[in-house]
Hints:
This protein has helices at about 5-10, 15-35, 35-45, 65-70, 105-120, 140-150, 165-175, 185-195, 215-225, 340-345, 380, 385-400, and strands at about 85-90, 100-105, 130, 155, 180, 205-210, 230-235, 240-250, 255, 260-265, 275, 280-285, 300-305, 305, 320, 325, 330-335, 335-340, 355-365, 365-375, 405-410, 425-430. By secondary structure, it is an alpha/beta fold. Bound molecules: 5'-O-[hydroxy(phenylacetyl)phosphoryl]adenosine (DLL).
Amino acid sequence: MNYWDERFETMSEEEMRNFQREHLGKTARWVYERIPFYRRKFDERGVKPDDIKTLEDLSRFPFTVKTDLRDNYPFGLCAVPLSEVVRIHASSGTTGKPITGPYTANDLEQWTECMARCLYAHGVRSNDICQNSYGMGLFTGGLGFHQGATRVGAAVIPVSSGQTERQIIIMKDFGTTVLFATPTYALTMAEKAEEMGIKLKDLPLRIGSFGAEPWTIEMRKEIENRTGIKAMECYGLTEFGGPGTGFDCVEQNGLHLNEDHFIFEIIDPVTEEVLPVGTKGELVITAIQREAMPLLRYRTRDITTLRREKCSCGRTLLKMDKIYGRSDDMLIIGGVNVFPSQIESILLEISEVEPQYVIIVRKKGYLDQIHADVEAKQEVYDLGPQKISEVEKMIEGKMRGIIGIGVKIRLVPPKSITRSEGKAKRVFDERKL
Ligand code: DLL
């Protein structure tokens, strides 16, 4: 069996579009009748649920944005009475009130199926032992992966994140074959194992499912080289139930999107115009099967490109490029748009430094400046100040050559940057805006 859910994973484009149109119509009616916020928004736009005759009609409907969720905190966008809600997750976010994620029993079931689909596509099977090192709790990562792996029939170790030394001991003693974690925590674990003299490559570990934060292809290679596993990817957000919206197949060339549950659009984040498939822009998602909080045209702020192509795995589901970054993380320096991922791509190709860095944005006079503190490899650091300054200049030259802006590089001592146990915080904006 190649697929978890062959019918939907290999459905023809035409059949999928028909399925989506039918469920979009139902969802539009569902939210219009049950959520005053959507009724008001539809009325203001002069649109009615019955206006959805084709999928293209979706573009006439209003967007939902993060502040709409905050303004309606905690349950203002919930379409069902709380008696029908069986779970509530939340994401802390960086500012303001958390985003809440209520689920009905059906929502939980669908989420579990989406996660089972994701893990099965990665190659996880019932004989696997999955170490779940995503934070277990309000964060959707922990329970999402727990449910999905349980559904596949694998054995789950619900260890949660943190206590890294204990994680490595468990991995070794229990014979973990699959690891669930954020990519930066996987790297922290790889480093800890090296310190403990344990070679992850000699352990049965074979697959990782990583996500919850932007990471580059270079970071994936780094994790694969250090651990000897296949680093697969999972994408999702609390607003749509959590992980399981998109997933890597063995080809590792773009994430398949669960189109029977969600409709995906790409828009220009400034003009809000819908862009054709193949163009980079902001990902907009509409839930078409959720009951408790089906968001319509939600602006994720994640920047990516969609691709409609035949995948060698046989899945026909739309593909999405790795998330380039979030529009709110984009830095504008001297008129040039820079994403932290561009800086990471360059740093991870440099053999003199560790894949541990922070980016700091400061104001100097009227100008914004990007600084990056990067950890030197021990052997480089030991060579002293002259070598360090040489490497700093070399990296600055590469940054200027590739991104076209000056990034002030400072090599810092090995192990001096705080290690991540979940989503890493890597950009510090010190400008007084
Ligand atoms: O991070 C859900 C999740 C858990 C996904 C575990 C994958 C694995 P939130 O905390 O609501 O939900 O954060 C959602 O995280 O809008 C993206 O900016 C980012 N994100 C999630 N997955 C990826 C990924 C979870 N694979 C926000 N690549 C999203 C890049 C990702 N960014």
